[in-house]
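Tokens as discussed.
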């Protein structure tokens, strides 16, 4: 299985190892942190010239991980931004209208 899998209904699955490495966590902690919403995410579908791509954004404490993937789940770009010692406000984790 690749690190990112695009499901027929439009859902996306990501290997917990990817999140664990980005957030410097034990892999075993990732499912619990997702359930507890300590790791949150946002999904944007590409439009226009970006059609066929997805932007997956994950947040944990003061770190944001962004993955741009194609329809096969291949990671085209990856970025990790650490905002320092202050966790991001909850509003930063929510999709903008």
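Sequence:
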């Amino acid at each position: 299985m690749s690190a990112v899998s695009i499901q027929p209904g439009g859902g996306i699955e990501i290997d917990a190892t990817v999140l664990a490495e980005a957030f410097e966590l034990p892999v075993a902690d990732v499912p619990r942190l997702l359930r507890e919403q300590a790791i949150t995410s946002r999904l944007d579908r590409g439009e226009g010239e970006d059609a066929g791509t997805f932007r997956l954004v994950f947040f944990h404490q003061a770190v944001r991980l962004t993955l741009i993937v194609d329809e096969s789940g291949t990671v085209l770009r990856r970025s990790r931004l650490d905002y320092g010692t202050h966790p991001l406000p909850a509003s930063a984790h929510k999709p903008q209208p």
